[in-house]
Design brief:
Elements: H1 2-13, H2 28-42, H3 46-60
Length: about 60
């Protein structure tokens, strides 16, 4: 189930277009995939992210 969800997200990320300069050093599709991978590895579920968000937000405030 998780693999099909990840495949669906990657497929949809492939359809995203952006207004990047022609001389961008990285491909937009690769950037989005890497961002998703970093989020997924750090917080595998949205519930875990929401539960830890208040602690993380508190760490960012001065």
């Amino acid at each position: 189930m998780v693999n099909s969800l990840i495949a669906s997200v990657i497929e949809r990320l492939g359809k995203v277009t952006g207004n990047r300069t022609p001389n961008a050093s990285t491909d937009w599709h690769n950037t989005l995939n890497l961002s998703f991978a970093m989020f997924h590895l750090k917080m595998p579920s949205l519930l875990q992210f929401r539960e830890s968000y208040s602690t993380k937000a508190g760490n960012l405030r001065l």
